[in-house]
């Protein structure tokens, strides 16, 4: 849209860029006229006796440069869906639009900033011009949510809290600590809430295949079939949430051990029993 104006501006100027050559239609003489300043246009070209007559641009029209246009340009930029006006149309500038918060422009469209999936964190926040940049969480960090703003978080330090590691953290979830005493101490009281939570945490984040996780969920919820799909990390989160929900109703320990056996997850059942002294 600036092409015609740029062409005019690109013509050789004589001495100063604020003048232009013009042939008077009446006398056929070549004249050097003054250009009009930004915000105005040429109402009348100069004559032998008169300077160029410049006028202000009407509403919704502009000229950005020293010019000899006979009409101002129309502010032809219209802000579309998902855009906001960041520069109003005035006598010297066209309207300027930009993608609204949470969107970036790509091929003339405003697309929503991507979310980084679990296991990935935001390395660079999206801008109106650039999408979010995600990176896999490095060792010692995790991200359990799908987010366009959250970076990876460091795993918590159980020792610092005077607790022990119950479940090692990975890219998808935090380290889970417990004060349900370490192995070999007699701090553990079966049925104790801390220990019950610790057992839930322990079981939920074992390397249980998705198929078996679904089976467990089915057994514990007494539902015919789990339709939820997703990655194992997502399934583990769901399973963990389910167990925590069940626990809030009534003690879930026994039921969980029974479910593990029904799902033929004998070694996990055994580990849970040993670890939490549920003999
Ligand atoms: C010279 O320009 C003025 C306005 O700048 C205008 O009023 C006048 O009519 C013009 N004179 C001639 C001879 O064109
Ligand atoms: C027109 O808008 C531009 C860009 O926002 C600004 O720099 C300029 O001062 C404005 N001019 C007037 C007359 O308001």
List the SSEs and their pairings:
Layout: H1 3-10, E1 19-23, E2 30-34, E3 40-44, E4 53-56, E5 61-62, E6 73-74, E7 83-87, E8 96-99, E9 103-106, E10 109-112, E11 120-124, E12 133-136, E13 141-142, E14 153-154, E15 164-167, E16 176-178, H2 193-204, H3 210-221, H4 232-249, H5 253-262, H6 266-275
Antiparallel strand pairs: 1-2, 3-4, 5-6, 7-8, 9-10, 11-12, 13-14, 15-16
Helix pairs in contact: 2-4, 3-4, 5-6
Bound molecules: 2-acetamido-2-deoxy-beta-D-glucopyranose (2 copies).
Description:
With 279 residues, this protein is an alpha+beta fold. Among the domains are: 3-74, Ribbon (Tumor Necrosis Factor Receptor, subunit A, domain 2); 157-275, no CATH class. The chain has helices spanning 3-10, 193-204, 210-221, 232-249, 253-262, 266-275, and strands at 19-23, 30-34, 40-44, 53-56, 61-62, 73-74, 83-87, 96-99, 103-106, 109-112, 120-124, 133-136, 141-142, 153-154, 164-167, 176-178. α2 packs antiparallel against α4, α3 packs parallel to α4 (232-249) and α5 (253-262) packs antiparallel against α6. It is rod-shaped and about 110 Å long. Bound molecules: 2-acetamido-2-deoxy-beta-D-glucopyranose (NAG) (2 copies). One 2-acetamido-2-deoxy-beta-D-glucopyranose binds at residues 87, 90-93.
Describe the biggest sheet? Answer: 2 strands, antiparallel
- Find the structural class using helix and strand composition: alpha+beta
The total of helices stands at 6
Which segments are poorly predicted (pLDDT under 50) over 5 or more consecutive residues? 1-15
Residue fraction in strands:
15-25%
Outline type: rod-shaped
**Taking Cα atoms only, what radius of gyration do you get, to the nearest Å?**
36 Å
How far apart, in Å, are the first and last alpha carbons? 81 Å
| Mean of residue pLDDT values | 88
Strand order of the largest sheet: 1-2
Query: How helix-rich are the residues, as a percent range?
Result: 25-40%
